[in-house]
Amino acid sequence: MNKDIATYFARYDVPSEVTSFVDRPIGHHVGGREIFTGKGEIDLLEPFTRSRLTGIANGTEADVDLAVAAARSALNGPWGRMPPLERQRLMLRLAEAMRSEAVLLAHLEAIDVGKSISEAGSIDVAGAIANLEYFAGWTSKIDGRTTNAVALPGETLTYTVKEPVGVVAAIIPWNFPLQILSWKLAAALACGCTVICKPSELTPLSAMRVAQLAAQVGFPEGVVNVVNGIGHVIGQALAAHKGIDKLSFTGSTPVGKAVGKTSLDTVKRLTLELGGKSPVIVTAKANLENAASAILAGVFLNSGQVCDAGSRVYAHRSVHAELLQRLKAGAEQLPIGAGLDPASRITPLVSSAHRNRVLNHIGSAISEGAHPVTGEESGTVDRDDWVLRPTIFDDCRDNMRIFREEIFGPVLGVSQFDDMDDAVDRANSGEFGLAAAVYSDNVNETIRLSRRLKAGNIYINAHGLLDPAMPFGGLGASGFGKDMGPEQLDGFLATKSIYVQIAGDPPLDEDHMEKAR
Ligand code: NAD
Which family is this sequence assigned to (predicted)? Predict the structure, then answer.
């Protein structure tokens, strides 16, 4: 093991099972076991030490073919024939196995993403387990419907059945690897699909562990597969593959568009969960103490690497000064440090390239005239580490990059408004529609605003709440389709309509056929 990693692990008493999991090459998980194929390895770096953690398999199209064959054969074999209640039991067993390995999984997220281990445990691991448990309950409740035909003559029986859509490819981003894997995996398994997961090449560890646990608790081989490798190789190969029936993608809008175009060539079912630039409206009737702390949590969670981060605040002129002062004070108190330090809230960004991208956005905000309030105010840092301090700008205008583009880092922009209609128009401007938040103690005002804001998820006096029973997904350039909630199930099901002509009935006469035409 690399010396820097060993020292880092020793400083935070990292359990031996974590060390043994990463102190070896990481392959793919296909057909119930780990395989080491592909074109060499990709270096996996730990973001706090910036040192090599391990190497992961650099997959090729041939690895995708292997995974598709394994997933198809499981679908046509034991998994396809398994009664729903047995599927439910397996899913609950997987959730239980994850619970008993919660410490390992939280460590894997913290060293892979660089995120706070406390958040990894309370949000990522707990959320993933809850999601599996919720969807396990759905396995036995997926029904078609019997309907009364309304225009057919004679006696018929008409009904629908819901079948698994087939082999699912799940493409996962690096910011919440385990949790977002669970969003796709749980609903797909509940519907009886088989899954090929492609984690980000920056964060493959937790997906590999979940696939191993699935094999250990008794999932038939080929039901849960992981193929590792570079996004534009493995992601594109999955999108183009004829043997895949459904693609569920979470990631950036540009990559989502490319993946979507490729997947249409083989007419796949498609879900796209994409980027955001979520507005926050703080009205004159807001409780500012609560608003400031929820806004800070909403934008600086995971060091700002959150798709629904409330990153542009519109504050009513009467509350703007006090809100800004509270935001500044709160941001400056957020503990900065290593992901493995349980006290840290702001930790390194995922990679050097991403840190530079975020810094470039900070530089643009300065050059476009936004007013620096706190954080990386100069737009340059002379440190080598990948940590950026929570940064706030005031006097942001809607045409600035800081208010238009997703930054995906610890950067918050603030602006003032006088007129509520104007605030709503400004909040609704832009291409994204993932989330929006409203802070007000006036219930009528919050409900009215929630109806007028264009976003898939609306938070009132809070930010970033998630629940397995609630669908999550965006509008506009934030994508389409839902993760979680019963709404997600349809994305993994095919509906078949069955017509039965009851024997003894007269055949359709010419008159009826004419009317139908
Ligand atoms: P990304 O688009 O770069 O990558 C996402 C996934 O796609 C990764 O697995 C990556 O390897 C793969 N990929 C990369 N290039 C590809 C290509 N050409 N073809 C096919 N696959 C490819 O996104 P990211 O940087 O990993 O994640 C950050 C983005 O994800 C942000 O835009 C964020 O808003 C978004 N996100 C959205 C949600 C949501 O639910 N809407 C949740 C989390 C993250």
Answer: Belongs to the aldehyde dehydrogenase family.
Q: How far apart are CA 111 and CA 18, in angstroms?
A: 10
Ligand 1 atom index nearest CA of 273: 41
* Separation between Cα atoms, residue 9 and residue 93, nearest integer Å: 30
**Enclosing H/E stretch for 160:** strand 156-164
Asked whether 183 lines ligand 1 (CB < 6 A), one says: no
Active site residues per annotation: 273
Residue ranges of domains in the chain, CATH in brackets? 13-275+482-495 (3.40.605.10), 279-460 (3.40.309.10)
Q: Residue 255 CA: which ligand 1 atom is closest? A: 2
Query: How far is Cα 340 from Cα 22, in angstroms, rounded to an integer?
Result: 15
Beta bridge mates, 500: 157
Burial 312-346 (b: 16+ CB within 10 A, else e): bbbbbeebbeebbebbbebbeebebbbbbbeebbb
Backbone region of residue 476 per phi and psi (left: phi > 0; alpha: psi in -120 to 50; beta: other values): left
Contact 224, 206 (CB under 8 A): no
Q: What is the mean pLDDT of the chain?
A: 96
User: According to the model, what pLDDT value does residue 513 have?
Assistant: 65
